[in-house]
Design a protein that fits this description.
With 277 residues, the chain is α/β, with parallel strands linked by helices. α1 packs across α5, α2 packs parallel to α3 and α7 packs parallel to α8. It has a five-stranded parallel β-sheet, with helices on both faces. Strands 7-6-8-9-10 form a five-stranded parallel β-sheet, with helices on both faces. The protein has ten helices and ten strands. α1 links the parallel β1 and β2. The protein has two domains: 123 residues, Response regulator (Rossmann fold, 3-Layer(aba) Sandwich); 140 residues, Response regulator (Rossmann fold, 3-Layer(aba) Sandwich). The radius of gyration is 22 Å and the shape is elongated.
Length: 277
């Protein structure tokens, strides 16, 4: 599976943004780069996307750079994203504990602008490492031809390694086969529609995964797909999470939302594996 990691460049200089964009893309061709010239553009981007790294100057035309960083840190999507401040100001001016500065925890690193853009590109490339993709294995369960076509198209577009089956029974058989063959669950995420066959609903499939196969929330994260409730209806959060679901997504499926949810669940799996190892 290939989900591009995102990098956000914030700089008021058109020429600086262009140079950084070109050289970063040359060094990291598989990364998705968004370049913004104002704080307004940057805050819109950070509300919409998760970023792997954010680089910013402090002199912006519409907002103080320090204030913008504080606003970014209030957003759940990028609350922990590494933020590199690129500036000619002294380090003590940028990282301050008084009311006018940013606390040290808000900034990941400081980069001196005088070192030049090539050094910044090298710094970012080294920080991110050579591997700029996230690989995973997904089991997708959906009996609806229309829904399956739409979701499969999104997964294929993002080069996702997935197996699509139509029923809960088929999913359980595949999970059993996978476990017997590998002595562990090698699937990173299970995506299942709520409405499957009469013999086994999505809720029942999830319950079997949790209780019969004994795959917990960390061993196999589960994303449930369900319809948007009517105006006079409420989402059954108790039923959704009580069944053993990690997260859910409503139809019609939005590509960016689906990708984000999958990435979050992959991270849960990866962190658990890292702790076990």
């Amino acid at each position: 599976m290939l989900f591009k990691k995102r990098l956000l460049i914030i700089d008021s200089s058109d020429s600086t943004r262009a140079i950084l964009y070109k050289e970063l893309l040359s060094s990291l061709p598989d990364i998705d780069i968004i370049a913004c010239g104002t704080a307004k553009e940057a805050l819109t981007a950070t509300k919409r996307f998760n970023f792997e790294i954010i680089t910013t100057g402090l002199s912006l035309p519409d907002m103080d750079g320090q204030k913008m960083i504080e606003e970014i840190r209030k957003q759940q999507k990028n609350i922990d994203t590494p933020i590199f401040v690129v500036s000619g100001d002294t380090h003590t001016h940028i990282i301050s504990n008084d009311d006018e500065g940013i606390t040290a925890s808000a900034i990941t690193a400081y980069f001196d602008k005088s070192e030049g853009h090539k050094a910044l590109v090298s710094f970012i490339a080294n920080f991110m490492g050579k591997e700029n993709t996230v690989t995973a294995k997904i089991l997708y369960v959906d009996q609806s031809a229309t829904s399956a076509a739409i979701t499969s198209s999104i997964l294929e577009k993002n080069n996702v390694n997935f197996l699509h089956v139509k029923t809960g029974e088929m999913a359980l058989n595949e999970l059993r086969r996978d476990y017997e063959e590998n002595q562990k669950c090698t699937y990173d995420v299970l995506i299942t529609d709520l409405t499957l066959s009469k013999e086994m609903t999505g809720f029942e499939l999830i319950q079997c995964v949790r209780r019969e196969l004994n795959f917990d929330y960390l061993t196999l994260p589960i994303l449930l797909m369900t319809v948007e409730p009517e105006d006079n209806e409420k989402t059954d959060f108790t039923g959704i999470f009580g069944a053993g679901t990690n997260d859910f997504i409503t139809k019609p499926i939005v590509e960016e939302v689906l990708v984000e949810r999958i990435l979050n669940l992959i991270n849960i799996k990866r962190q658990n594996e890292a702790l076990e190892n």
